[in-house]
Amino acid sequence: MVGGGVVGAACALALSRLGLDVALVEARRPDAWSPGSPDLRVYAFAPDNASLLEDLGVWGHVLEARAQPYRSMRVWDAAGGGELAFDADALGRPELGWIVEHGLLVDVLWQAIARSNVRLLCPAAVEALQQDDAGVELRLDDGTRVAATVAIAADGAQSAVRRLAGIDVSVHDYAQRGLVAYVQTDLPHQATAWQRFLPTGPLAFLPCADGSSSIVWTLPEDEAERVLVLDDQAFGAVLTRAFDARLGEVAPRSRRVAFPLRRQLADTHARGRVLVLGDAAHVVHPLAGQGVNLGLRDVSSLVAWVGKARGSRQDWRSGEKLERWARGRRSEAAVAAHAFDAINRFFSNDALLPTALRGPLLGLAGRLPPLSRGLWRKAAGL
């Protein structure tokens, strides 16, 4: 396993629990999470992936440390029309999901790795890769050679292992940036995830455990540059208007960071005995908050595949088996990525026809419980 982020660490733990001999290669030991230094990178964590972490024995530690359940979602368009709403009570759930910091997830997973049988090679980076029908050999930057029957790359969007394995990617640049920060609002967030579609891109307010909100604001690159350098008072005023003062006046509570947005898909999730997972395999638009959720579903799918094959005394590492798993994951990632792309294109413009249709379509979906329930179940992985 190469890459010790959320997806890589979870995969290493899960495969180790199946009785496999797992080595985890990571370039840098992550910083310890601190409740006094909130991580700007947060996730809208889905119930199916909470179940995965519960099976790994770490989800309880996440909840004890800091995780904000959200019980409602509200989605509407700036041009007016109806609103799409999801409510936990109507769906028979105690919550729809949780807002969790990236750093906290990595911290608890690494603590679990320290208690596991996973062999940790850190700091170390992969410099070369060779493979044949029998297995893979990785050469690390300190000269160490690691032999394995299968190598799994979860080393991010710029994956070195993916490149060394000869797996190409297709990339679409959105010419947008995702601006993230913590803010305080006059009105309470109501344990609700809010998203307003603007012609420039979606704006999300995600509820946090301390009463603040984490924002993810999609903006064209030039507009993102302008907003980043505003002083706090001006930024709060611009953000309040963009959010239509839905929660009253907004004031920043943290620094602001903006990252480029793109769609990136690996041509395959397997090349020989090398597999790719998470951002190494797919990067999607953040508007639906599905990035880490898709990555962890790669993990759940692989673990189920391995467990089923071992249970029937089949070799899950055979080329045919790996290719079959990879085709399924590639298909799901491509469908999700292009669906988010279509939503972003439809809502992030001021053309007359889309503008006239967006609000009524959201309202129609909100008035059809089977449709809204199906949309939520898809996002929740249920």
UniProtKB/TrEMBL annotation:
Domain FAD-binding, chain residue ranges per copy: 2-304
Alphabetized SUPFAM superfamilies for the sequence: FAD/NAD(P)-binding domain (SSF51905)
Cofactor: FAD
Keywords: FAD, Flavoprotein, Monooxygenase, Oxidoreductase
InterPro entries: FAD-bd (IPR002938), FAD/NAD-bd_sf (IPR036188), Ubi_Hdrlase_CS (IPR018168), UbiH/COQ6 (IPR010971), UbiH/COQ6_monooxygenase (IPR051205)
Known pathway: Cofactor biosynthesis; ubiquinone biosynthesis
Family affiliation: Belongs to the UbiH/COQ6 family.
Protein name as it appears in the record: UbiH/UbiF family hydroxylase
Organism: Luteimonas vadosa
